[in-house]
Every structure is written in structure tokens, then in C-alpha cells.
Design a protein that fits this description.
Blueprint lengths: L1 E3 H9 L2 H13 L4 E3 L7 E5 L5 E7 L3 E9 L3 E3 L2 E3 L2 E8 L6 E4 L1 H9 L5 H20 L32
Antiparallel strand pairs: 1-2, 3-4, 4-5, 5-8, 6-7, 8-9
Helix pairs in contact: 1-2
């Protein structure tokens, strides 16, 4: 995947001051993407056309819980998908019994700095309500049980093209 270099630098170093610079850099247009190999967990991600959220969970033989990532609706590209993280997330217990909002402080900072403008905020607010309703009713993407899903070990690990940072859509 490609990810903002501030985020990957924070993941490599653990230095929270680097992480805290990500949103101001984004707002100022001072950010770069770099190649990043997802690590530490295996994820099953579900993107839905036009949705402002995706759902994924750690699949190491059990569903450790659900993670709902609020994003701009994805766009297909020649090399995969393109989306944009909208800074707020929802962490849900595996059995859907409880949930908690994550990174609301970052979302508020993104609002203050203009990363999340009013129209986008309205879409996120609507998506938040939609996700909570789906969780509470166990419908939509939360109706199917993927807790036993395992990656087929014969599948190759996806790789980005060598020239990924210079490709144009």
C-alpha cells in the first residue's frame, strides 16, 4: 500500500510527536506517500461502493474485534483502489455488544484545519449513524460472520508496481 510518510515514520519509530504532525502537514499540503507493507496483523477489508466507511478485522484465526474506518468512498485505479482516511474510527467488540469511538481528537483537529470541510463532515456524520444502526441491528456488513476466515496460503502477496509513486491516474 501507499501511506502518508508521517504515518509510516510514526509506525517505525513509535514517536507520537511525529504522528501529531500528520494532520497539520496534510492541511498544509506538505505530505508525501511512501510504500508500506502492512504488518503485525492479517486483515480482511470490506469496501462498499459509495460508502464512507470500510470494515475490517484482525484475522489471526479468530475475530479479535471489528474496526470501522471512516474514509472517502474508494475509487478503482489501474493498480488497485484509492481512498482517503477521514481521521475517525470505530472499534467494535467481536460479538458486536459494545463499541467505542477512536481518534475523535484527530477528527476535531482535521475539522479545525479544514481537512474535513462541512460537506464532508455531514457525510461522515451520516455514515457514523448508519454504521451504529447496522451494528445494533446486526445487518449489512455486520450480518455475516467472517470470524473463521483465513487467507488462502497459496495466494501471492500483492505487490505495488516499481513505478507506483510516479504513476498517474
Amino acid at each position: 500500500m501507499l501511506a502518508p510518510s508521517t504515518w509510516t515514520a510514526w509506525l517505525r519509530s513509535g514517536d507520537d510527536t511525529i504522528r501529531k504532525q500528520a494532520i497539520p502537514n496534510l492541511a498544509a499540503g506538505r505530505w508525501d506517500l511512501e510504500a508500506w507493507l502492512w504488518r503485525d496483523t492479517t486483515l480482511l477489508v470490506r469496501y462498499e461502493l459509495g460508502a464512507y466507511f470500510s470494515r475490517f478485522f484482525d484475522s489471526d484465526g479468530r475475530c479479535g474485534g471489528w474496526y470501522v474506518d471512516f474514509i472517502r468512498p474508494f475509487e478503482r485505479t489501474a493498480i488497485g483502489i484509492d481512498t482517503f482516511d477521514l481521521l475517525v474510527d470505530l472499534v467494535v467488540e467481536a460479538d458486536l455488544s459494545r463499541y467505542r469511538w477512536k481518534d475523535e481528537d484527530e477528527y476535531a483537529q482535521g475539522r479545525r484545519l479544514g481537512v474535513i470541510e462541512d460537506t464532508l463532515h455531514a457525510a461522515v456524520d451520516s455514515a457514523r449513524q448508519q454504521v451504529v444502526a447496522l451494528i445494533e441491528s446486526r445487518r449489512g456488513p455486520f450480518a455475516d460472520d467472517k470470524s473463521m476466515w483465513q487467507r488462502d496460503p497459496t495466494w501471492p502477496t500483492p505487490a505495488l508496481p516499481e513505478d507506483v509513486l510516479t504513476l498517474h491516474r
